[in-house]
Amino acid sequence: MNISLDLLKKLRNDTSAGVSDCRQALEDANGDYEKAKKLLLERGLEKAAKKEGKETSQGVVEAYVHQGKVGVLVEVRCETDFVARTDEFKNLAHEVALQIAAMNPKNVEELLKGAYIRDPQLTIESLIKQVVAKVGENITVAKYTRIALGE
User: CA quadruple 112, 127, 93, 67: dihedral positive or negative?
Assistant: First the structure.
């Protein structure tokens, strides 16, 4: 099947998946963009499941301060320094910090099970799995600290 370059570019931009993965998904979906997007998500989640348990020794410490009243430091880990420098990973660390500032979870487990503030249909755990599917490495939230003025 001949896949249009524009459709391939659009799918790659929307999903951040590799070119060959996008091409394969479009071919498997007979050129149906939405079906290809679903296929990529399913395949990515399968890859993410295989990554669970891999050692995460690299990452970033993200800091977020909300209006000078709530501060958060969160350590988000991945397998390699290469992934720790990607925009997807840095954005995830920032989103996790925002979540902690907004929701004040008691521990990491509660954080992971909590509904994502930007999309309540997602949990933080499922958000992390989406990024794992994109970057191809295990990602964990190691620890965090939240400080609020007057608490």
Answer: negative
